[in-house]
Amino acid sequence: MANASISIHNVMCPTDFSDCAASAFAESVRLARWFGAKITLLHVIPPAVPTSVDMGYLPTPAGIGEAVRKEKLEELQRFVAANDHHGVTVETLCREGDAPHEIRAAVRETGADLVVMGTHGRSGLGRLVLGSVTEALLTDAPVPVLTVHRDVAGGKGLFRQVLCAADASEWSAGTIAFAIEIAAEDALHLTVLNVIEDLPETRAWAQGHYAMREVESFHEDLERAAIAELQKLIPDEARVSCRLEEHVRFGRPDREILRVAAEEGADLIVMGTHGRGALDRALFGSTVRRVVRAATCPVAVFPAGYLWPATSLVRQHTAEPIGAYRATATEGGRL
C-alpha cells in the first residue's frame, strides 16, 4: 500500500458474475490493496420474474425469492473464491430491486467511497445487464464511479498517465482536484484537457465571412484564453508530484478525449458531471456515455456536488464560456 492522500476505505463492486464483472472485481482488488480498503461485492436480484413479451413481469413469490437469494449468495461466494483477492477483505451483499437504486442505497448504507463497475455485462432473462446499469448509475451517482472495460488489465503502480477532461467552470473544480489527487499517488503525467466544440456550421460561417488566417487566429485566441482559465483552477503545488499540462482541442468532445487518451497512452480518464440545465446535462451525459463505452482504459466519473476531501487543493473559480464559440465542458454530465 502507498502512502495515500486520498482516503478510500470501502470499494463497492456490483457484479452480475460476467467476465467484465470479473475485470471490475480485479480492479477493485488492485485499488483496495493500494489504499488499504475493503471491498463490498454486491449483486442485485431483479424484483420480478420475466415471463414473456406479452405478459410482462410477475411478482416473485416469497418462497422462490428466498431460494433465489440463497442461491445468489452462494454464487457470490464462488465468485470471490474464483478470483484473486489475497490480502483484501471482501464482504458480500445481495439485494433485490431496481439495480441502480439498490446500488445507490447500498453505497450510502455501507459508507462506500468508490464504486467500480464493468461497462459490459451478462444479458438475458433474469440477468443484470451490467453496462446499462452502469450508465443508469452515472445519472446520479452518490460517489465517484470507476468504469472498467473487460479487456483492461491493471499495470504496475496505480495510474501512471492520467487524462482529466474538464472545462474552466466552477463545476470542474472538484473533478480537477480528484484527478490531481489520483495523479499525486503514482502518476508520471497528468493532462487537463478542455475541448471546445467546433461545430461544422459555425466553422463554415466563419470561413465564409473571414479569411482562413483570421479563423486560425481566432482559434489561437480561444486556446490561449481556455488555457489561462484552466491554470487559474490549478495551484502551483499540484505540479510538484508529476508533470502537469493543460491542453485545448477543437472538435466533438468524446472523439477528442478518446484521441488524446490514445495519443498519450492514458491508463485513466477522469471526467465529471455538471449541475447545469437540462440541455447541457444531456450534451455532457452523451459525452460521458460515449467515452465510457469506447474507452480502452478505466474511466473515473466524478459526480457534481460531491465533496471529496482533497477538493481544497483546487482554486474555486467561475469562468464564462470563452469567445463566440460555445466552450463545451468535456467532463460529461447527468445522462
Task: Provide a descriptive summary of the structure in words.
With 335 residues, this protein is α/β, with parallel strands linked by helices. 40% of the residues lie in helices and 20% in strands. The chain has nine helices and twelve strands. It has helices spanning 19-35, 62-82, 99-110, 130-138, 173-186, 200-209, 212-233, 253-264, 278-294, and strands spanning 10-14, 38-45, 48-52, 56-59, 90-96, 114-118, 145-148, 161-165, 189-196, 243-250, 268-272, 299-302. The strands form two sheets. It has a ten-stranded mixed beta sheet with strand order 5-2-1-6-7-12-11-8-9-10, with helices on both faces. The chain has a two-stranded antiparallel sheet with strand order 3-4. Strand 6 (114-118), helix 4 and strand 7 form a beta-alpha-beta unit. Helix 3 (99-110) crosses helix 4 (130-138). The relative contact order is 0.15.
